[in-house]
Specification:
With 129 residues, this protein is α+β, with helices and mostly antiparallel strands. 47% of the residues lie in helices and 12% in strands.
Amino acid sequence: MEPWTLLYDGACPLCRAGAAWVTRLSRAGRIRPVPFDAAREDPALAGLVGDTIPDGFILRTPDGAVFCGADAIPELLRATGTLSLLAPLLRVPPFSWILPPAYRWLAANRQRVSRRLFGCGTEACRSGK
């Protein structure tokens, strides 16, 4: 069975940590993390990323469905196998109301958050993007 593919910003320490966390929590081989730059080199994934850096996770399921940003989070939890019981909870109020704006804020401020949490020293973190 093909694994779930998680595309993420490999230049972002917060994004790398999130991808590593769900990969560790997943049952062996269920989630394949791929940085956006590497996805651009893969003909099967390049169309999902495009030329710009997306504003958040992109998750492709084994059957080819694609979820982006906050919509990817419940599916990503489901994909782990170990946290799948939390996925339905994120689809009902108040969690379904809170998750999208919280995710948008975190995605928009991921470099600042990375600076605070990880002492990020990359140019992207220094510029505050």
